[in-house]
# Entry
Amino acid sequence: MSPILGITSSQLIGRLTSYDSIATQTVTGTGVTSVSFTSIPQTYTHLQIRASVRSNSVAAYDAFYIYNLNGAGVSSEMANHYIYGTGAAVGVNSYTAQFSSQMGFVPAANTLANNFGAGIVDILDYTNTNKNKVMRGLVGYDDNGNTSGSPFITFSSAYSVQLGTSAVTNLTFIINNSFAIGTKFALYGVK
Amino acid sequence: MPNTYRLISTNTLNSAASSVTFSNIPQFYTDLKVVMSARSSNASNFDNPRISINNSTSTFTRREIYAESGSAGSESVADRIIGNCPAANLTANTFGSLEFYLPNYTSSNYKFWSCDSVTGSNSATYSLWLLAGLWSTTTAVSTIAFSLQTGANFVQHSTFTLYGISNA
Amino acid sequence: MPSTYEPIVTNTLTTTANSVTLSSIPSTYTDLVVVVATTTGGDINFRINGDTGANYSQTVIYGYSSFGSTKSTNATYNWLNYGSNSGNLLAILQLNNYSSTTANKTSIVRDAANGATSDVMAGLWRSTAAITSLTFTPPSTFAVGSTFTIYGIKAA
# Structure
């Protein structure tokens, strides 16, 4: 494939694999309110986070958030938008000037025992210093009709104004209460 | 062990371009995935990337679930749009996030795909799409090209990455 | 170094089939990604570990000739697609933490059919057993050429 003027084109047919595991965080104790990935290697092109999440919040469900990219100071410059379905209704929500970006909803203490939500979040071009960072997420769980107004399947985007065009070096996920034991976040790099 | 998920080619725009093409796609993978981080030069909030396959622009159709700036719904159109991206009137330096998955691209069946896309935004102006697409042609896919529905350019720094995925 | 993202098994139909089972799934991965591509139309469902009991439920956002959200409870299977499937179906099934023996099994399905139907679903199998098999069943038979692939993703 020949390069075309104005386009940088690279072929890496010889590369053995493009999808690598970077790190995994598993909650093994109580009182864990955030999960962070720090010093993220800058050698990939895209990131994917795959998660299995439950909250200890005394409620049927809880929201989990991407917060404070790169560990920068507290700010109110994150935004997110999502479409959600509960089985009874479909709707949209939009938040700007927030402390964190909500990626979706997960089961909490007052729903079925042993239930965890699943999430897949993608960040394209995370090292690119010409681009603001946009996160795309698919997050959901089901509770067999356990609670009215729940469960949730959510497709979302998240955005950090504060981070600007800086490369992503740290990621933190938070929840309104604490993460349940067994919650797992796995970070993958994609070339 | 076979290597399943392989980068085939990346196109990063050093200057604006009206289209991006992946040609001579190897025929030894099972599925194709394209991720796109793109922005349009069109004087609007959004634009829509569209696809041509093997230089064909006909016999396409799509259905998407959309959420845009406070409303949601579903629509079906006989065209080759695959998703959304930010355009010139949306927050500067913001590019979309799009993932396109095309299974069995060398088969002798019709070609169909899913495509999920979002525009980043720090305002109440945004777009999220979950799309199903179809190309009613049985030819194996050897060339894929992307352009914008408005005819505008993809701006500098837009990126397009093609992966091959092999099954067992 | 072992690959992080590996195909575990593929079944490509050379004859029609009333159902397709992918079994002996090893517990050595972290997550599973299952890709089903078929020209078969109609409602296709899936079951886990051969369980035919009323242990499934699902929440859907659907878009076909109508748009909305619905759910199933105490069902005997989960949907692989919702709405009108006139064939040319791609379904990608995500099963995070599939080998856990302490958590119920949550699935996320993203399906796209014939350029006419687009859905996303969160499902539950109320069992803490590790997933060792998946069975897919169409209304009648799967067409020749239908493909079913399980990929394993191994976290660090």
About this structure: The mean pLDDT of chain A is 88. The two ends of chain A are 19 Å apart (CA to CA). Residues 43 and 89 of chain A are 42 Å apart (CA to CA). The longest strand of chain A covers residues 90-98.
